[in-house]
Hints:
By secondary structure, the protein is α+β, with helices and mostly antiparallel strands. It is built from 3 helices and 6 strands. The chain has a single domain (3-129), classed as Nuclear Transport Factor 2, Chain: A.
Amino acid sequence: SNKAEVEKSLRETVDSMMKGIRENDFDAFSEVISEDIQVTMGDSNLGEFYEFSEQSFQDATSHITWTSTDQSDFNFNFAPDMNSVVVTHLSDGSYYSNDSEEIKYATRASHVFARTDDGWKLLHSHWSPRKGAQGIPNRE
């Protein structure tokens, strides 16, 4: 398939990941997870990198109520064989954490995907706050 179609499909993949995060829906998010790939994550609270699991997903998202997330400024950097790719984008939105005021969220994100027989699967994701902005809160 041509590069534009592949990029469109990757963008939809990232959008569905973000929808899973926004709706605290592990099943939706895990559509990009392969059982034979251990995914590593770095959250926008700038904590340590960690191995992704259902428990880590709940830990990271359960205390946040998202009002919105919008992804923009996508870039795709493919390996020469087109079987792996680094996707970068901006993510903007807002959320409430426990009983906080609404918090504006602005991060830059990067994801590494591998092409598999079951579509694009995630190897690594990293979010960091943009200058002067906030990511997700630290877990207590």
